[in-house]
Amino acid sequence: MPAGDDYLIFRPDDVDLSRSPLRRSIAEPTYVLGAFNPGLTRLPNGNLLLMVRVAEALRDPVQGDSARAIRWTPEGYVLDRHALHGLHIDDPRQFALKDRNPRLLGLTSLSWLLPVELDVQGRDIVRIHYDKAIEPSASFLDYGVEDARISRVGDTWWMTVCGVSAERHCTAMYRSTNGLDYDLLGVVLDHQNKDMLLFEGKVADKYMALTRPLGEVYFAYPQDSEWLGGPAINMAQSPDGLHWKPLDTPGIRARKGTTSTQRIGGGSPPILTDDGWLMLYHGVEKQGLVGVYRSFWALLDRDDPARILRLEDGAPLFEADPALTADIAHQMYLPTPVVFTTGIVDAGDHYIVAHGEADLACRITHTPKERFA
């Protein structure tokens, strides 16, 4: 049993790759680059569910004069070859084709989702549901299914994922009636609109969601503005959970004088409290190859979520903790501190919060509600 209120609950070595969906097609040795960024929800039986992103990589991605990438096809998984002389390989997660504008990337791993059931308090693993793993099943997911976020609205569980393919880098939607078995509904947001997560409840009978569009060009605010330009959290609404209209008003933006100088994005699905919609989000400080990821929080008006009641973007709510990953530090491939909050559930006098830690493992934190007073 994990000790204390902040611990790793699931690690790369907890994945049984003999039960990976890739085994049906690929016999070459693979390993778990990371088991991280888990969606979080509570099941009808009271237990918690982590939807863990498993990034599975070839042991030997470079063979001869080529780098190889894993790709799903309707007939099975295949290995694509890219000539080394045409690549930049300076990031353990990906390679880039030389002299291409905009950039064209290839991944060194393929991600699929593994449902891991925890006990009511999230301290013990009850069951790992390999039979319900979610793998690519459409061409817009053929390089992987990444970073699930799960929101329960009424009696339905909605799960957004980042779909990776050469066709588009999109947000896809899954839906479940029991929190464990999910059906793919297709693309809901197009190219590079990441970190989409639904509010856990409707506003004026409409679904609400956070989004985070990415792009090649952003425009500067006036020099005397408190805001920084760049990727920010926007909001959208929908009549049915599938067709989304962005709100005209801005959402949450990075501010000068904070550590979130590179970008910000959604973390946990907003949950309704007595004071409004509580949301946790990540802010990134530019540093090294990836940046430093920290978690912050905000409170939104219950009837008009575009109205921000409180924005706590100074002292971080969560930071990476090297002590948590000390015993698996030899598996770490990112030297920069990263905590990536992905879910929150109510546990009475406290919240149970899920994160990806160091892009490597799944972290659980028990946080007193007084922390948000």
TrEMBL record:
GO function terms (MF aspect): glycosyltransferase activity; hydrolase activity
Keywords, ordered alphabetically: Glycosyltransferase, Hydrolase, Transferase
Keyword presence, Transferase: yes
Top-level taxon in the UniProt lineage: Bacteria
InterPro entries: Glyco_hydro_beta-prop_sf, Mannoside_phosphorylase
Pfam families hit by this protein: Glyco_hydro_130
Protein family according to the UniProt entry: Belongs to the glycosyl hydrolase 130 family.
Matching PANTHER family: GLYCOSIDASE
Protein's UniProt name: Putative GH43/DUF377 family glycosyl hydrolase
Classification lineage: Bacteria, Pseudomonadati, Pseudomonadota, Alphaproteobacteria, Sphingomonadales
